């Protein structure tokens, strides 16, 4: 059972975990032990509330496939258990991040004083650079 919030949780049957071999350079045990975890979570089949499902399905994140499946690969740690915990934590963080409502950005204009100061600074730099030129006799 994965607790997302106080009233939202995911059952174990909704999350599919499979052990795979980690990629990258390893050591002597690299070709023998499957320590990486491949997590698959089907959004459409899940018991999440509809608002969660809508936000997850409309996200532009590369971890969500066209079919509505979240795929997370965890291979940060050397043990399978720690990678499993990492994958579940990343799934929880991803779901919670999709529920955060972004503030709308309002377009603003710079003040007249700030424009004047910026232009004065640019004019000052121009004078400084002109004094570095070779002197004509």
UniProtKB/TrEMBL annotation:
Gene3D superfamilies, alphabetized: 3.30.160.20
One of the Pfam families matching this protein, by short name: RF-1
SUPFAM superfamilies with a match to the protein in the record: Release factor
Record's keyword annotation contains Hydrolase: yes
Ranges for domain Prokaryotic-type class I peptide chain release factors: 7-132
UniProt family annotation: Belongs to the prokaryotic/mitochondrial release factor family.
Record-given protein name: Aminoacyl-tRNA hydrolase
